[in-house]
Amino acid sequence: MDFKEITQKESVIYHGRILTLKNDTVLLPNGKTAQREVVCHSGGSCIYCERDGKVLLVKQFRYPYKKNLLELPAGKLNANESPKKTAVRELEEECGYKAEQVTLLFKVYPSPGYTDEIIYIYKAEGLKKSKKHPDEDEFVSSRWIEKSRLKKMVDGGKIKDAKTLIALLKIL
């Protein structure tokens, strides 16, 4: 059976700087219609960096959760920007490093029940120190954490960010 849903009507409810919210009407495989609320997002990239048995993470306050989270360096794709360029840009902006080589590991759908966002996860190699220059509304600190300690943090539920967990569970 084909489970494809066919869009009958798209309705934009909100269009903001970071996302668009739609309430679409779809035709279901059984011939009935249903509503689908979708958060449209340009997507993002994150980048895994390892050096001397340590992994580079950033600490950043995340307003929706009202707490600081440890994450891989990451950011949203700008208009007409490739996911790879986003990863490279974020590494320098947030951590002050440039990479000689950047390789796509995989891409993930963080929450396919309500968003079309895709996150691209890269690995950086050949790091060279550069200059950190976060966005004016971005406050982050970066730190290198031993892989053995990081594994304990993952196992103990200390890392909550999905993209970071997915990358670490694949790599650690």
Report a brief summary of the structure.
The protein is α+β, with helices and mostly antiparallel strands and 172 residues long. It is built from 3 helices and 11 strands.
Mind explaining what this structure looks like?
This protein is an alpha+beta fold and 172 residues long. The chain is 19% helix and 47% strand. Strands 5, 6, 7, 8, 9, 10 and 11 form a seven-stranded mixed β-sheet that branches. Strands 1, 2, 3 and 4 form a four-stranded antiparallel β-sheet that branches. The longest helix is centred in the middle third of the chain and has 13 residues, at 83-95. It is elongated and about 60 Å long. The chain starts with 5 loop residues before the first strand and ends with a helix. The model has no long low-confidence stretch (mean pLDDT 95).
Structural class: alpha+beta
- Largest sheet descriptor: 7 strands, mixed
The coarse silhouette is elongated
Q: Whole-number average pLDDT?
A: 95
Strand content: over 45%
Helix content: 10-25%
What's the end-to-end separation, in Å? Answer: 39 Å
Low-confidence stretches: none
Number of helices: 3
Listing every helix as H and every strand as E from the N terminus to the C terminus, the arrangement reads: EEEEEEEEHEEEHH
> How many beta-strand elements?
11
Radius of gyration: 18 Å
